[in-house]
Structure of Amine oxidase domain-containing protein:
Amino acid sequence: REPPPAVIVVGAGMSGISAAKTLSDAGIKNILILEATNRIGGRIKKTNFAGLSVELGANWVEGVKGDQVNPIWTMVNKIGLKTYYSDFDHLANHTYKQMYGYLEFGEPPRVTSLQNTEPLQTFTDFGEDYYFVADSRGYESVVHYVAKQFLTTDKDGDITDPRLVLNKAVTKIQYSKSGVMVKTEDGSVYKAEYVMVSASIGVLQTNLIDFVPDLPAWKLLAIYQFDMSIYTKIFLKFPYKFWPTGNGTEFFIHAHEKRGYYTIWQQLENEYPGANCLLVTVTDDESRRVEQQPDSETLAEIMDVLRNMFGKNIPDATDILVPKWWSDRFYKGTFSNWPIGVDQHEFDQIRAPVGRVYFTGEHTSEHYNGYVHGAYLAGIDSANILIKCAKKKMCNYNIKPKST
Ligand code: FAD
C-alpha cells in the first residue's frame, strides 16, 4: 500500500507544477497533483485555428534582455520554441480614428491592463523586450518541461506518473490541525498532511471549492479585494491581406468613441507567414460582453470596425477564434491585477497559508503577478514556505502590517 501523500497540489498550471517540482526536489516526493481539466498547462494553452497552432492564453515571454534572465526565456530557448520579437515602438504611429475617437493606449496591450504598479518590476528586472511564441508544440511546452524534470514519462515522453491525476476537480478542502481531506467532483476522497491550492484568484472568488472550516475573514477579504482581469485575444483569418505589412507595421490602433471597442490590432505576418491572420484584443467589460454573444455577432462587429479602417471592399474573415476564459469555471478570467490601494499587506494575506492549506498561483507572486514567470516563481516560493514548515517546523508566516 502506498503511503498517503504528504502534499496534495490542486491544479497543474505553471505554478502548481513548479510548486510540486520544488517539493520533490526538497525530498517531499509523496505528492499528488489533482487537475480539474484533461491536461496540464492551465492558462498556457495552444489550439488549432484554421490549420495553425495559436495560443488561447499566454503568448509572450515578457521581460527579456535585462540584467537578470527571465527563467521562462531560458526554458523557451532550451526547448527551442520559435519566438518573434514584438515591436511596440511604432504602435502610436498607426492609429485609425473613428468619429471623436481619442487615443488612450500608448503601451503594449497587456501592459495597459497590468499597469497598477509603476514601474513594473518584470521590465526593470528582466528587460523591456517582448517575444511572441508561435510554435506548433505550444507555449505550454514550458510547463511540460518543468513537469518532466520530476514526473516519470514513457518512451514517447508522455507523462505517466501516477502522482498526476487529470479530470479531478476539487470541490471540498477540509482542514484541521492534524491533516487535510480533499474531495473531488466525482466523489473521490484524498487525505494528506498539507494541500497547496493553485487555482486562480477568480476561482477562489467563486464557491467551486468549499473550504471547511470557512477560510478566515482576513483571507476572504484579501481574496475579494484582488481583481481578476479579462483579456480576450481574437484571432481572425482572411482570404488575403488588406493591411500594411513590413517593418514597424505589426501593431495598429483603432480609436473608437466607445472605450476599448476592438482597439488593439496585431498583424501576424511574421509569426504566420502567408496565413493572412490578424489578432485583435478586447479586455474586461468588452471581454464579458463578447464572451456572452455568439461569435457570429462578434465577427460582424469586427468586420464593421475593419471596414471603417480599410474601406468597404475588404473581404469577410473566413475563420474566427474567441477564447472564453471568463466563462470557464476553472479560470474565471485571465490574470490577477492589484487594485489601487492594495499593497504588500494584502499581498501577504493572499499568499499566507491558513493552517495546513497553502496557496500559490500567479496572484501570489510578489513582484510578477499576471505573468508566466510570476506563476513559475510563485510556485517555488510557496513550496519553500511549506517546506520550511514541514521540515523545520517553522510554520509562522509573517504578514506585513498595512503601510500608512
Ligand atoms: P493556472 O494556469 O490557472 O493554473 C491553475 C490550474 O488549476 C489550472 O490548470 C486549472 O484547470 C486548475 N484548477 C482550477 N480549479 C481547480 C479545482 N477546483 N480542482 C483542480 N484543479 C483546478 N503571461 C505572460 O507572461 N505573457 C503573456 O503574454 C500572457 N498572456 C496571457 C493571455 C491570456 C489570455 C491569459 C489567460 C493569460 C496570460 N498570461 C500571460 C498570464 C499567464 O498565463 C498566467 O499568469 C499563468 O499561466 C498562470 O499560471 P497559474 O499556475 O498561476 O494558474
